[in-house]
Amino acid sequence: MKTLVTGATGKVGAAVVSAALAAGHQVRALVRDPARAAGVLPPPAAATALELVQGDVTDPGSLERAVVGCELVFNAMGVPEQWLADVSLFERVNVGGSENVAKAAAAAGARRLVHTSTVNVFDAPPGGRFDESCLAATPKPNAYDRSKQRAEEAVLAAAAGTRLAVVLANSATVYGPGPMTAASMEKRMFAPAVRGLLPAVPPGGFGVVFTESLARGHLLAAERGEPGQRYILCDGHVTLAELVGTVVEVAGRGRRPLFTMPTPAAVALAATGEAAARITRRPPPLARGQLAYLRWNAHPDASRARRDLGWEPTPLRDGLRRTLEAAGLLR
Question: pLDDT by residue (tens digit) across 28-53?
């Protein structure tokens, strides 16, 4: 099947491209920078079913050209950071870009769109468990989460009344081989821990999902997902201290964090870090939205994806071993 993947040079998009190729799809990857894509995706000569198309989700014209002839679209792009110097990017890319993708797909007669969303659109008490029935009824307090809420609304509205069926893949926090941004867990936590340079971690925890698990979930959502439904894709929940401790154990070197920061210290770090970031225009060590998410510490329930899609999670140690091996961090 001819398939378009947006965000193809990101961690999620690159994994979806690989999974779609392995499943026999003819993949058209939307990339802003072909030179960067060459370092992330298989070269077309090695993957003859892969076509790179230059474009941008904020440019509707480029999307109209990219989606021609595609039956299936994976909208895997997005700005994943919890802090940006220019917060309007969340609205322009996550919301406007998603709306543009859905409109282009519908106009081109695509059959199905799988939209990469997040578990941040749900609600639960701190430390509680939630599933797809727990959609937040009000806008979330930080810009990233609000943009993901509005992106879901935008793609569903754009597809209404057309033949395009939208399925929402709600991802937990992603880790795994692939492109590493400055905000990625691999760069900010895994590598420093393995090198013995992470003395403390913030409090709290989150659900995690391995890139290949997430990509498999996207393909299953395309094949078996119910139009309009959300599917949580989460391998399991860990505290940050447990996660980093397991990284050190799997790597066979490094040092566990000496302590978990007291909440008041983490709150002060986030506030002062963001104040400095407004001056330097560089991301803070810990953003307030990031800390709020960690302190929420809620447990995503992936039962629907397992039951209805036949999706299976990846054990944490297996995913970490493959991640650390790809990053050259194993002993």
Answer: 999 998 888 877 887 665 557 899 99
Alpha helices in the chain (DSSP H): 11-22, 34-38, 60-66, 88-89, 98-107, 143-159, 185, 191-194, 211-224, 240-251, 263-280, 288-296, 303-304, 316-326
Q: What are residue 49's DSSP bridge partners?
A: none
Q: How many CA atoms lie within 13 A of 321 on its CB side?
A: 7
Cα–Cα dist 44/9, whole Å: 14
pTM of the model: 0.95
Give me the sign of the Cα torsion angle 56, 3, 80, 137.
positive
Contacts of 203 (CB under 8 A, 6+ apart): 240, 260, 261, 262, 263, 266, 294, 295
Write out the CATH class of domain 2-176+207-237+299-314: alpha beta
Question: Phi-psi bin for 18: left (phi > 0), alpha (psi -120 to 50), beta?
Answer: alpha
Residue 60 sits at φ, ψ, to 5 deg, of -55, -35
Amino acid, res. 134:
C
Per-residue pLDDT reduced to its tens digit, 218-273: 999 999 999 999 999 999 999 999 999 999 999 999 999 999 999 999 999 999 99
Gap between the Cα atoms of 10 and 12, Å rounded? 6
Stretch (H or E) spanning 174: strand 173-175
